[in-house]
Amino acid sequence: FPSHDIFQIQDTLQNILAVQGTLQQTESQGFKYQLNARTTDFLATNARRTDNAFFYGTACLDADVQINGYNTQYQVRGNIRVADKTRLTAYMPPDEQVGSELNQLVYFVPPSSAKKEPEAREKSKKRESTFDPSTLTLNLSVSEKAELTLIMDEMTGDYLKVRGNGQMTTGLDAQGDLFILGRFNVKEGIYRMTYQVFERQFVIDESSQSSITWRGDPTDADIQITASYKVNKPLATYPFTGKDLSKDPRLQRQVPFSVDLVLKGDLLAPQTSFALSMAKEYVERQLAWDIVTGK
């Protein structure tokens, strides 16, 4: 076939994914191909909450991908961008379900073993891996307007909702499993936390330098998140060691405090800590007043 649109895929929003290139039959009755797939704002998924146990929402992609090969020997290279209109929510599975859930979600079957039973395929994969990790490698970026939500605890309803950017790499490893490498920088977001009967939304901003760094397996990531909850309270409501200052009139005025929630470590089981501090603006203003008045 000459170089032109070989086929097109249209999503429900009439966005087109066009595959162009050449497809040539060789003298040995094989097929040699050089293809390019391009799209903008393509609706890759539009899942309802009841459709599966892994994610729901919409994911829109921009793509420029090259597919070159001969018969079943191929290479896939290119760029994928999570586009502006993405609003995707994913569930964090329990540790013991991570491997099994990923295998159910994405499974790659070599053509020669397509008719084998799942158990036989798994044993064969463990016994010998001939998958070339260079077969599929893509540069992955995320629009700052895309919104990603991680359900941290489905029982309590705790979730992390973020927007940001990052340059990552995704593809298939030597066993044919999906991997992600790279850092996602959080520009803004919220962490909704429930403790007993209390519910609070902690705000994440760019100054916190929060991030999520993937190390390979999509669920193997390091999380560094600092989120703040602002509250105005009189100093008299806080305990002071060694002195009873609760009746001091200077401590009755409302003071802006920041309660910082810090999440560190493994994405599936992060370590949580809290820190309490006065708002920076208040401290600077009060210090300036003390200098002026000589107090």
Question: Strands, helices and their partners?
Answer:
Elements: E1 4-10, E2 16-25, E3 31-47, E4 55-70, E5 73-82, E6 87-91, H1 98-105, H2 118-127, E7 136-142, E8 147-153, E9 158-172, E10 178-195, E11 198-204, E12 211-216, E13 221-234, E14 254-266, E15 271-278, H3 280-293
Parallel strand pairs: 5-7, 6-8
Antiparallel strand pairs: 1-2, 2-3, 3-4, 4-5, 4-6, 7-9, 8-9, 9-10, 10-11, 10-12, 12-13, 13-14, 14-15
Strand count? 15
Unreliable residue stretches? 95-117, 123-131
Please tell me the overall pLDDT: 79
Helix content: 10-25%
Distance between the termini: 86 Å
User: Which class do the helix and strand fractions yield?
Assistant: mainly beta
Largest sheet: 6 strands, mixed, barrel
Strand order in space, largest sheet: 4-5-7-9-8-6
**Gyration radius, rounded:** 26 Å
- Number of distinct helices: 3
**Strand share of the residues?**
over 45%
The geometry reads as: elongated
Protein model, in words:
With 295 residues, this protein is mostly beta strands. It contains 3 helices and 15 strands. Strands 4-5-7-9-8-6 form a 6-stranded mixed barrel. Strand 8 and strand 9 form a beta hairpin.
